[in-house]
Amino acid sequence: MFIQIDGNSLTYDQIHQVIHEGYSVKISSDALENIKKSRNIVEESIINNKVIYGVNTGFGKFSDTVISKDDLADLQINLIRSHACALGEPFSLEVSKVMLLLRANALAKGFSGIRLETLQLLIDCLNHNVAPVIPSQGSLGASGDLAPLSHLALLLVGEGEAIYNGEKMSGGEALKQAGLEPIKLQAKEGLALINGTQAMTAVGVVAYMEAQELADLADGIAALTLEGLQGIVDAFTPESHSVRPYPEQQKVAGRILSYLEGSQLTTTQGQIRVQDAYSLRCIPQVHGAVQQVLNYVREKLTIEINSATDNPLIFSDSGKVISGGNFHGQPIAFAMDFLGIAMSEIASISERRIERLVNPQLNDLPAFLSPDPGLQSGLMITQYAAASLVSENKTLAHPSSVDSIPSSANQEDHVSMGTTAARHAYQIIQNSRKVLAIEAICAAQAADFRGSNKLAPETKRVYSKIREAVPTITQDRIFSLDIERLAKLLKEDVREVNYQLMH
């Protein structure tokens, strides 16, 4: 099985197919022609001694330095080596592979002037399960993700480090074992490989897909909590949501009602109390607003994964070579900051529901859901852990996009910090998943005290899935193991869990 890329039509489903289902990648026939045409413009410009940034000039502040024809190849390899100064823990293998795919797709648009054989090697690496080791820190998110993408480019010239079939080795050895040959970069090619937003966008794509799945899961977990706390269903009925017609809010309210249909544990207004606390009553308003953010993020990432983001851009139809700023990551920086803020709120409201589940002053359940209150602490400290993660998220959610530090002797005087924003959003999502795992554990335990046989059919499926990873608590144990195990289940089996929630 394979997908075709042309720089214009890559989808999230296709990204998933390549990264997780082993689909191969091919260049479409139309894209092949466009790639060849833009390369011809580069070579003709060199023959005619036309000065083009990054082809026969230096980079950044050195843009006014003209390079001789004899040194054009050296210029490109020097660029890759000098710019490969990313630091810190490497991106995950998943992110590295997405970076390969997204960079290949951007180059396939045919505005970058790269040779077909260079692009084909990038695709061959993806198809042969060779992924570069790319440190995660060091990008300013303008002039592209220069540092991380340089580590990607090192692989193509047989340098740097790579993962081949799960084993870490030198880039050259990885190519050799995969039966591939490194290339020698020619004019413009080094710049074409590293001048783009594919690091922040790759992290953004992975973060978005996990966030969307987690936000959907949050509705089902919240529904189970409502049963554990004998929540009032009136707040979810269509009337109140029809007069504030946010589609996402209405959708969440409808889903909560569908999950709770047939429950013997929920209540109505005045049956036990007149209204619930905000963390229960306002689930549609908060979760719905998160879904609004996710729609925004999806829209921006969809544009970005099918964009030409390098510089200069080569327009073969007109023959123009234009130095612009499509490498500037501001659209993705804003989107990633917004994503981090939204997912922080998913965790924040979840933690408040956890507090209502364990606090004996806020419910009629055994204190801290303990099987023997006093002798056994039960789930008391799980709320501490959730509160700690929520507090950490508040720091991580400080917008990176409001920051800028000039670089390259002030030639590059405003940057996006988009990759930092994406990395922080991704970490927030990991933290938020653990908070939701804690809520799920507490909600399931509350259901045991209420009588799990009284759950709605849909939430009973959620309960059963939780109990696959976390047995009913009959005595104190090391709860961090339960939380980590369930968080892993929520990540690895999320589509199956969501199926249980949605069907």
From TrEMBL:
Molecular function terms, GO-annotated: histidine ammonia-lyase activity
Pfam family, any one: Lyase_aromatic
Alphabetical keyword list: Cytoplasm, Histidine metabolism, Lyase
Q: Which Gene3D superfamilies match?
A: Fumarase/aspartase (Central domain), Fumarase/aspartase (N-terminal domain)
Reaction(s) catalysed by this chain's protein: L-histidine = trans-urocanate + NH4(+)
Q: In which pathway does it act?
A: Amino-acid degradation; L-histidine degradation into L-glutamate; N-formimidoyl-L-glutamate from L-histidine: step 1/3
Q: What class of enzyme is it?
A: lyase
What EC number(s) does its UniProt record assign?
Answer: 4.3.1.3
InterPro entries, per the entry: Aromatic_Lyase (IPR001106), Fumarase/histidase_N (IPR024083), HutH (IPR005921), L-Aspartase-like (IPR008948), Phe/His_NH3-lyase_AS (IPR022313)
2,3-didehydroalanine (Ser) modification sites?
Answer: S143
**Record's comment on post-translational modification:** Contains an active site 4-methylidene-imidazol-5-one (MIO), which is formed autocatalytically by cyclization and dehydration of residues Ala-Ser-Gly.
Q: 5-imidazolinone (Ala-Gly) cross-link position in this chain?
A: A142-G144
Where does it reside?
Answer: Cytoplasm
Which HAMAP family would you find in this protein's record? His_ammonia_lyase
Q: Which family does it belong to?
A: Belongs to the PAL/histidase family.
Designated name of the protein: Histidine ammonia-lyase
